[in-house]
Amino acid sequence: MAAFVRRLAAQFPTFDAGTVEGFVAEIHRGFAGRPVRDFIPLLVERGALRRLPATG
Fold it and tell me: Which of 37, 45, 47, 48 has its CA 20 to 30 A from that of 17?
């Protein structure tokens, strides 16, 4: 996830890395205990890519 946070922070320079990391952590927590464990990184990435532009 750290590499993904760095990529997102580079893609959305108006957000500092801590903000991006917070979004990613929040989205990731939303999948806790779900049976889709193999797809969580992809789902978190998609969620962050939707939410960051809408926030900025």
Answer: 37
Cα–Cα dist 54/48, whole Å: 10
Number of neighbouring beta carbons within 10 Å of residue 33: 6
Confirm if 14 and 56 have CB atoms less than 8 A apart: yes
Residues 8/56/42/4 CA torsion (nearest 10 deg):
10
pLDDT in tens, the chain (56 residues): 788 889 989 999 999 889 999 989 998 898 888 787 788 888 888 999 998 888 86
Q: Rounded CA gap, 38 and 28, in Å?
A: 13
Non-local (6+) Cβ contacts of 4 within 8 A are 24, 41, 44, 45, 48
